[in-house]
Amino acid sequence: MQLTFGGLAAQTLRAAIRLRVMELIGEGERTAADVAAEAGALPQAMTRLLRALTSLGLLREHTAGSFSVTPAGALLDSGRPDALTSLVRLFTEPMALRAWEHLDDSVRTGDIVFDTVFGKDFFSHLKELPDLSTVFNAAMSQATVDTAAALPHAFDFGRFTTVTDVGGGNGTLLSGVLSAHPALKGVVYDTEEGLAQAPATLERQGLTTRCSLVAGDFFRSVPGGADLYLLKSVVHDWTDEQVVTILTHCREVLPPTGRVLIVEPVLPEVVDTTTAGLTYLGDLNMLVNVGGRERTRAEFEEVLRAAGLSLVSVTALPQAEPFCLIEATAA
């Protein structure tokens, strides 16, 4: 029954964010009537929403109608640096959910049903929605925070001089790497839309002199000049054929001692329910919305080989589960 009502729980979180519930309650204790007045909502309906959030572990009701925010609920406060509000907004947006109504069609045909529903692919549609594109970029940044903290200490960046983050978005991941390795230079490579918030990220981190931004299309080319090419949460967005194209472009500019470092979940050959988490739901999301997939080690080896690359190692990243580091070199 919890699984059946999961969609309703997600929309409850969406309403809490849209009504700014967590910000209005703040760090203390407030009545539902006070929150309703500031949110422009009805007191009784707000009480019902706050009690539903309490039942989900996001609020605590101390006396009848008086609430405070739990540590989990605080992640829905957009003013916090560790907030997940954009991530929640993205995955509860009608645009992100419409194709899921036709999951069975994707399973039957293998087609990307998002394209059928909206008449264009996910990223082309997103490009036409500037506000949602900003939410998407922020969501990807929020989904990268743990990896940005763990990655610099989980891989030997000291043997490289320049790292290009292919599909690096707003620069959150590369900023973490460069901050921990002062001798390293960097390039964030993405579409113009993907890079929209990157200048502000580099400015905040004091990295504008060590990191450049390059706009382009990784299906056409990847900029040369780096000895490490980093791809996080890029490979899983695309079909095998498209992945081979992206990796081939990396291979074409890779120096003899260079490396390609892919940061993605690596599926076991048989599902391990103790570690599966949300990875397999994410895999279905790739199926219906963009046509990509999560992959096993053998499947990563296959696309790497087709791109002229050889897998060197696969290393788990425990501080940022379920991600692994997939290191490759020229074949």
From TrEMBL:
GO-annotated biological processes: methylation
Claim: Transferase is one of the keywords in the record: yes
O-methyltransferase C-terminal domain sequence ranges: 100-309
Keywords recorded for this protein, A-Z: Methyltransferase, S-adenosyl-L-methionine, Transferase
Residues in the signal sequence: none
Domain O-methyltransferase dimerisation positions: 1-76
GO molecular function (one): methyltransferase activity
Keyword Transmembrane: no
Entries under InterPro entries matching the protein: COMT-like, COMT_C, COMT_dimerisation, SAM-dependent_MTases_sf, WH-like_DNA-bd_sf, WH_DNA-bd_sf
Name used for this protein in its record: Methyltransferase
